[in-house]
Design brief:
Layout lengths: L1 E4 L1 H10 L4 H17 L6 E8 L2 E9 L5 E8 L17 E8 L4 H15 L4
Parallel strand pairs: 1-5
Antiparallel strand pairs: 2-3, 3-4, 4-5
Length: 123
């Protein structure tokens, strides 16, 4: 599984939690791998817009010392994900678009939509 982080949506979070960046990335990778293996059972669509022709999903992740955060992401090759589809998620390419400590769904969605438009990522 290859995970990339979109600079425009993740920079502010990583800047605020500079000392915990490695730990945060490891927790995000572990949580997303688990979600892909279980068929993304705790994942919701984040916005109606698409990025690169793919749906944008979000889930809440406990980052231990840093606290909980919502993470918006795109799965680039969904045919290799999900236990129900015969895949194990190992070949998936995931782009993490946005990380925020804001847990309220509607406020997170507004922030995500604004960030996607400013970065020019929406289709």
């Amino acid at each position: 599984m290859n995970i990339t982080y979109e600079r425009s949506g993740c920079k502010q979070f990583f800047k605020k939690h500079r000392g915990d960046e490695k730990t945060v990335k490891a927790r995000i990778e572990k949580a997303l791998a688990t979600q892909l293996e279980t068929g993304m059972s705790k994942v919701k669509r984040a916005v109606s817009a698409r990025v690169g022709g793919q749906c944008v999903y979000e889930c809440r992740i406990n980052l231990r010392r840093t606290g909980s955060a919502r993470v918006a992401f795109v799965v680039r090759n969904p045919e290799t994900t999900g236990a129900s589809q015969g895949g194990n998620g190992q070949g998936a390419d995931i782009d993490v678009l946005f990380i925020s400590p804001v847990l309220q769904k509607d406020e997170f969605t507004r922030m995500l939509e604004r960030d996607l438009k400013e970065a020019g990522l929406c289709d």
